[in-house]
Amino acid sequence: MRLLVIFAAWAPDDGENSQKWLAWYENILAERFPGDDKIVAANWGSADCVERRLEGLPGILEFGRVPEELHVNSDAAPFQLGLSLAREILPDYDYVLFAHTKGVSYAFESIENWRNDVSKTVFDRRLVSDFIQTAPPSLIADRGHMVTGADSIKTFRARTGAMGFVLPFFFGATMTVYYAPARLVAELIERMPGEFLSKNLLSQGMTRYMFESATPSLLTMLDAKPAFLCGPRFNERLNPHVSYDFDPRHNSALVMREFEKREAEGEAYQQIPVPYVFGAAEDVYRSNVAFKLT
Fold first, then answer.
1. Residue 96 lies in a domain
2. Which residues of the chain have pLDDT under 50?
3. What is the C-alpha to C-alpha distance for residues 257 and 270, in angstroms, rounded to an integer?
4. Is residue 214 in a domain?
5. Residue 171 placed within a domain
6. How many domains does the chain have?
7. CA angle, 253 as apex, 247 and 255 as ends, to 5°?
8. Which domain of life is it from (predicted)?
9. What CATH number does the domain containing 67 carry?
10. What range does the domain containing 73 cover?
11. What pTM, to 2 d.p., does this model score?
């Protein structure tokens, strides 16, 4: 698997907590992905320790800083810069790993369980590579939402027709750290407005969660199949092409079929159970997303 890592970085200061987080990400990127090319983009306002920790990573192709005029208070702006730097070389890769300094705003010790989880899933390159060999073009994440909120649905239903997407509904796949097929990322960039990578995302009407929710969702419209690694990855009886989490009800293909059925019956986007997969397995069953397009 030819992999390009796009890493969005930010640290609020040079303090001990920031240093712990950056040291952990430095170690992950250097030891888990030593032979893979990397582009690192730091958000505007990041502390200097970001450069000191990440600029010398093995395989780094580019290190950039978001200019002030493109700043968005999230990982969206550095991902935008990272994609701008990667645009011309995307055809050289099979997959792109989108990762960012998740957790750096929180006490390092408070999110140990999350670090342990992702170390065994999305940051296990061999596991992901083996999975890709048996899967269709997939969006591969540890966990995530299956559908985002009504405002996002309204926004993207209004836009996707003009962008040439063929699915009649908005299917959301919110992911924090994920792999995406490089050819679909390149296709998505071509379908987006011309200023997508050059103007401030908020000024374009985009969301600060553009790369955690909107981008994975749009990639599903290009036929990428969400695949979550936090639970069993396949259920051949249900669907050989889409993974599921802790329960067959979470199978993304089944969710999509439910959308189609309800839309055909004139009941699209009423309240239906959709999982928010984060935390322990037992927490998953309690979560619903209520949304209506009215």
1. yes
2. 146-152, 166-171, 232-254, 267-294
3. 14
4. yes
5. yes
6. 1
7. 70
8. Bacteria
9. 3.90.550
10. 3-244
11. 0.77
